[in-house]
Amino acid sequence: MSPFLSFFNKIDPQVETKPKVALSEVDHEMRLPVLLFTISGILWLLIGTFFAIVASFKMHSPELLANFEPLTFGRVRSAHLNAMTYGWANNAVFAVGLWIMARLCKAHIRYASMLIIAGVFWNIGVTIGIIGILTGGLTSVEWLEMPPQVGPLLAFSYVLIGMWGILMFRFRERGHVYVSQWYILGALFWFPWLYVVAITMIFLEPARGTIQALTNWWFGHNVLGLWYTPMGLAAIYYLLPKVLGRPIYSYYLSLLGFWSLALFYNWAGVHHLIGGPIPVWLISAGIVASVMMVIPVVVTAINHHMSAVGNARAVWQSPTLRFIVFGAMSYTLASFFGSWMALRSVNVVTHFTQFTIGHAHHGVYAFFTMTMFGGIYFMMPRILEREWPSAMLIKVHFWCAAIGIGMMLVALHVGGWIQGMDLNNPDIPFFSPDSSARTILGALKPWLFSRSISGILLTIAHIAFFVNFALMLIGPRAVRYKEGPTLLAAERKGA
Amino acid sequence: MKNLPLLFFGIFFVLAFSWTGLILSSVIQYGDLKPIAMEEGGVPQPQARVGVAQQGKLVYISQGCIYCHSQQVRRKGFGADWERGWGNRQSVPRDYILQERVLLGTSRTGPDLMTIGERQPSADWHHQHLYNPQFTSPGSIMPPFRYLYRTQKIGDAPSPNALKIPDTFPEEKPEPGYEIVPTERAEQLVAYMLSLKLNYELPESRNAE
Amino acid sequence: MFEWNLYLMIIAVFGGIFFATAVAALWWSAKHGQLRNFEQGSRVIFDDEEPEGVHTDYFPGESAKASDKLREIR
């Protein structure tokens, strides 16, 4: 073997006889970092929800809070996006993704303090960033709205987290690498690269002209495609078979799914620039890649479906799987929509409209966030050795989230489609003094309003989640071992 | 899979591949575009935006206007950009080369602004529209930017740049003896709006026709 | 335009290298037994505490009831 290859082989632990590390030991050792990330994630979720509601209501009632500059629409929607992305979603990824990684490595946790430091600095960075957005440091670069000055802080925290993940992997128990680990490892490599390149080419050493826009969407789309999606899929690939107690349907398919996703997804971002002032061949490449995304999606969908099929009741009786299966189904649907939207004939309608906003929520909320909810429902009892205090609140959370996001998707997709058709018809003006005239905004407003209603449902869901989580954390000790944490109950009864 | 070179190389390669293909290749292909004059001795276009208009762009950025207004004209026949009068030629990469922050935008909740300086050359209109969009555009859902204006006591004579509030909005009128004037930021933003023009040709600007 | 063809060639070369690497990687992995016992790998997520064949998640307070129900169906 060449020295080049053996360098990488070293990362695979050599034969050592170590005592086996039990999953509960891993859980116990991960308690502090996981708690830190989960708590901050959930707090960001609430903050982001608040910004979302303000932004959503402002869209149909522009006079709302209009004279308070920090909450002007452009800033508050950016604060919403960044609080959700870098606050909620990333903290959730750090908690759930790293925990799954640790469990699959089956090794004692080392350097947990790295994670604590990283977590503290990450959240400080995001807080400064959000305040920066609201007070005028908004950059107007989509997905990178935080003032570039926080970039180094976030990058530093991130590097610690990424390094920890790779160290964890390095010291894992010898044996097979599970598919979730590929996804997590990939994501841990990809995200910092994307982030650093984007920050550099847009802010520090701005690229010329519309190359910035290309970089922007290469980053923006890949945050979803090469960071949240792999992490979400890693969680699904781990938790679905785990909860059902039977292995994933086809391991070959999961390999194919991983590589085709990795190959196609990162070319797809250009479809945000269809019709724009960039070379046409790039756009065509982006469209081709977007359509090719059908392969990993179908493969993954078949795999998930075949794993869960015949277990509907088990899915329904597990809070985790309710959310996870909802997420997995949304992933399939959202991805098909994404491929379809990349076609020029469709894109000419949906581009520039609320349809895109709907699609973003389809991916980030209906797929990713729901999956992370499921992950947290599975993870917390094991981390805290406590039950969730209230089954009722979990159900409220699930139903409000599911109905809320469903309603939002319908509102934004239908409203966005109408908006797009109207935009392409030059006879329809944006607005008109004649209130009975057909106008773009007049036709769009009812849909924006129903989006706000769906936002209220989501708010209820998030509050239910938060209350349940807070009770679990600080509730009386009686909650502990009432019936035992979910996993122990099953084990003790030998079910 | 037990050994990992394949995994690591693969992970590295796929992103390197797309970065090379999408970004590096663009830098090579058009990263050194320069302003160009259509005829010998003409003014090379596009020109850099300077002064108050450039400061106005920073206001535009910090207010997040981009989230509802794009700055790009698509080719004729792709969407209704031409028919709506947003431009009579498509915008091309060279149009953007001198901008240190490119604001193409991905949302058109409001109209495209690539040529707003040509379509709406009146500063008064822009000030009225910014102060309360309903003055000029009834039915608009654009937020009002009143905080970019201030109310002051009228001095010896009314300020020349005092806002003309339409009589149909009596509740927006300042108290007698007071007037509403733009702050510096509002003046800058309007200067930026007026500077947004696509009134020159480039060698490639008619390629798609 | 000549330039365009040049860029297409460069891309084709890069694409060719990429494709060749992928094929080589696949060949290497097959030769070195990376794909042997492949499906077995999907079982590494189970251990003594959370063994295969056992459901591990229920609504709080409902695990006994729920697992009974699931057993009836089997």
From TrEMBL, chain A:
PROSITE patterns: COX1 (PS50855). The chain crosses the membrane at residues 34-57, 83-102, 114-138, 150-170, 182-204, 224-240, 249-268, 280-302, 323-343, 363-384, 396-418, 453-474. GO terms for biological process: aerobic respiration; electron transport coupled proton transport; respiratory electron transport chain. One of its GO terms (cellular component) is membrane. InterPro entries: Cyt_c_oxase-like_su1_dom, Cyt_c_oxase-like_su1_sf, Cyt_C_Oxase_1. Keywords: Electron transport, Membrane, Respiratory chain, Transmembrane, Transmembrane helix, Transport. PANTHER family: CYTOCHROME C OXIDASE SUBUNIT 1 (PTHR10422), CYTOCHROME C OXIDASE SUBUNIT 1 HOMOLOG, BACTEROID (PTHR10422:SF29). This is Membrane protein. It comes from Cerasicoccus arenae.
Automatic annotation (TrEMBL), chain B:
SUPFAM superfamilies: Cytochrome c. InterPro entries: Cyt_c-like_dom, Cyt_c-like_dom_sf, Cyt_c_oxidase_monohaem-su/FixO. GO terms for molecular function: electron transfer activity; heme binding; metal ion binding. Transmembrane segments: none annotated. Keywords: Heme, Iron, Metal-binding. It comes from the Bacteria. It holds the Pfam family FixO. Residues 51-197 form the Cytochrome c domain. This is Cytochrome-c oxidase. It comes from Cerasicoccus arenae.
Automatic annotation (TrEMBL), chain C:
The chain crosses the membrane at residues 6-28. Keywords: Membrane, Transmembrane, Transmembrane helix. Residues 65-74 have a biased composition (Basic and acidic residues). This is Cbb3-type cytochrome oxidase assembly protein CcoS. It comes from Cerasicoccus arenae. The keyword Transmembrane applies. Residues 52-74 are annotated as: Disordered.
